[in-house]
Amino acid sequence: MELLGHLGLGFEVALTWQNLLFCLIGALLGTLVGVLPGIGPATTIAILLPITFDLPAVGALIMLAGIYYGAQYGGSTTAILVNMPGESSGIITALDGHQMARQGRAGVALGIAAIGSLFAGTVSTFFIAGSAGTLSELGLMFGPAENVALMVLAIVAVMVMGKGSVLNSLAMVLIGLALGLIGTDVETSKARYTFGIAELRDGIDFIPLAMGLFGISEILRTLETPGNGDVIKSRISGLWPKWADLKASALPILRGTGVGTVLGILPGSGTLLASFSAYMLEKRISRTPERFGKGAIEGLAAPESANNAAAQTSFVPMLTLGMPSGAVTALMIGAMTIHGISPGPQVVTQRPELFWGVVCSMWIGNAMLLIINLPLIAIWVSILRIPYRRLVPAIILFCCIGAYSVNNSTFDVVVLFAAGLFGYVLSRLDCEPTPLLLAFIIGPMLEENFRRAMRVAHGDAMTFIDKPISLTLLLAAAGLLLITLVPGIQSRRAEVFKEGSS
Amino acid sequence: MPLRDLLTGGIVAVFGAVLLLFGNHLSPGTAVRMGPGFVPRAVAIGLLLVAAGIIARGLVSYPARRADQPAEAPIQWRGAASIGIGILAFAALIQPVGLIASAMVTVFVSSLAQQGEGLPERVVLAGGLAGVAGLVFSVALGLPLPMLPTLS
Predict the structure, then answer these.
(1) Which residues in chain B touch residue A420, judged by CB atoms under 8 angstroms apart?
(2) B150 vs chain A: nearest CA distance in angstroms?
(3) Which of B14, B45, B65 is the last residue of a domain?
(4) Residues B56 and B90 in one domain
(5) How far is B107 from chain A (nearest CA, A)?
(6) How many distinct structural domains can be found in chain B?
């Protein structure tokens, strides 16, 4: 059993006390920041990235994964208790979860969310373990032309799946590519767009950029809606659901896990599509659809499981092909590059301890969340009650210290400032920062592979169409773009986001 | 909202123009051996085309899209200014005066982003957070951050 051997290696790595500690710290900090209203997983990871900087590569990725799950769980907690979700998929959680909380069933809602997440996490860990080998073998057949096609597909998918206008997203992609050009050209060592600034010779550091685009601008956005929302005042008790609740949510958890696992792999889809589809599925097959939106436990259990399953399987294309499928995985790829790992299919074979260690720590992280969060829920609730005006300066200070400490450079703090204000302007203009960051991170790889592919093909651009894998990937990207032009789908897309944000 | 599209298009166009202007000396090379200037030129052209597209959309759809625009939250000038100055203050102060003092300034200035708190509370918050930051980052995590002004 090859799979068991791999998982054995993975648990061996993940169960060392250092890595368990990293996972625990990550999950705790992730929840701590993720629980803050209006702050989603991508922002949480961006804010907390600098603390993983000095760790060994495996530990850093394990901690980042822990932060991600923690942030997701924290976001669900906020969605249920305050109805202020930090990310789009939390909006679905809030639909029925917050209603349950209003009916005095906050404890049950939090419990079911945790149990559903753990179940989904378990299934999708095995799914990743089973599918990773095959995918990375496929990935190893990729040459520069296929890599270019794959990255184009990743970028297009993020553009299409994001909310708002595709033209705006394309603009963000191009700006991201432009910012990624800054620095020394790898092939000719010529300085590009450094404007004589020494710090720019190695390019803009992605940590202050991500912190600014996500963290600072997100905070400015939250300032626009004053107040903390209404936190559920009553004491939360009875976290462990009753037998009837468990029975009612068993099948929804199962279905949600299935939906999430499959949709999570698709590039760019992220967790919103998964939790939305799972919610709609439950509503459609329910005998009492009118209960949805009024505190139906199925309407919480299914999307929460789907959300977590998708969060996990979205790591599959990142770990096996080096292709980010959204802001979170783009940040992880950036972190891998900092640690000197070039993301791609070779990671599975060359660094099996890293790959399997991260996969196994995903499951451990999920289990930890269930164990630590049920007793700690009172703490998270009390954080929700801290006035926002006291949290803002703390987050700002944390971002400043984080940005500075990466290279001990004040220039990075200035980048943080510029990226934060730019991010706020962009979000006011309905431009999403995710495509920008994604293009910034994979831009240099894209250029390198593009130039290499053209050289190998003696300057013939047809090479991208002549190779079957590359052609398939490019056709898939073109198909995705075309879909957005179909009027029916366009309105459907608007509807999904409208339902998501109302 | 034409203004929004015009502004977006303008920003995108500026990026394209900067890429073209300051990348003029970079050689595009040939198709077989691309120089450092090929991709920048391609990105710049893309930026200018997209900018034109966004501006055109703003001009064309102006009357139609106006009705269903929800009311916008007001821009956070106060928040952006105090948080921005807070961050820049940190950049300017961290090396000359050390973590404690620069953290206090950053926290105090960025706390001005929101109303509703008196001067004493802001000062206490600044002192408290600076102390916590010093303990966590310098003492516990051992980051090479100077705590106090370096006398030299």
Answers:
(1) 83-84, 87
(2) 15
(3) B65
(4) no
(5) 5
(6) 2
| Of the partner residues B18, B116, B125, the one whose CB lies closest to the CB of residue A393 | B125
pLDDT greater at residue A271 or residue A444: A444
A451 CB neighbours in chain B (<8 A) are 34, 38-39
Domain that holds residue B100: 77-140
Most B CBs within 10 Å: which of A213, A221, A397, as the mutation test of the B interface? A397
Find the DSSP H helices in chain B: 2-22, 38-60, 62-65, 77-111, 119-133
pLDDT of residue A502: 36
Inspect the interface and report whether the beta carbons of B31 and A404 lie closer than 8 Å: no
Q: Which residue of A174, A179, A404, A501 to mutate against B (max B Cβ within 10 Å)?
A: A174
Could you give the count of Cα atoms lying within 13 Å of A269 in the half-sphere of its Cβ?
A: 26
Chain B residues in contact with A428 by the CB 8 A cut-off are: 75
Distance from CA of A458 to the nearest CA of B (A): 5
Q: Could you give the CA distance from residue A297 to residue A415 in angstroms, rounded to a whole number?
A: 45
3-state secondary structure labels for all residues of A347-393: HHHHCHHHHHHHHHHHHHHHHHHHHHHHHHHHHHHHHHCCCHHHHHH
Q: Which residues of chain B have pLDDT under 70?
A: 1-2, 62-72, 140-142, 150-152
In-domain check, residue B149: no
Among B21, B43, B65, identify where a domain stops.
Answer: B65
Tens-digit pLDDT profile for residues A251-295: 899 999 998 888 888 776 667 778 888 888 888 888 888 888 888
d(CA B76, CA A86): 19
SS (H, E, C) A159-223: HHHCCCCHHHHHHHHHHHHHHHHCEECCCCCCEECCCCCHHHHHCCCHHHHHHHHHHHHHHHHHH
| Closest alpha carbon to B37 in A353, A472, A191 | A191
**B71 falls within a domain:** no
Task: Name the one residue in this structure whose structure tokens are 């659901």.
Answer: A241
Instruction: Please indicate, yes or no, whether residues B60 and B113 belong to a single structural domain of this protein.
Output: no
Name which of B15, B38, B106 is nearest A178 (Cβ-Cβ): B15
Query: How many CB atoms within 10 Å of residue A181?
Result: 22
Residue B95 lies in a domain: yes
Across the interface, do A181 and B40 touch by the CB < 8 Å criterion? yes
Which chain A residues have a beta carbon less than 8 Å from that of B76?
Answer: 220, 223-224, 424
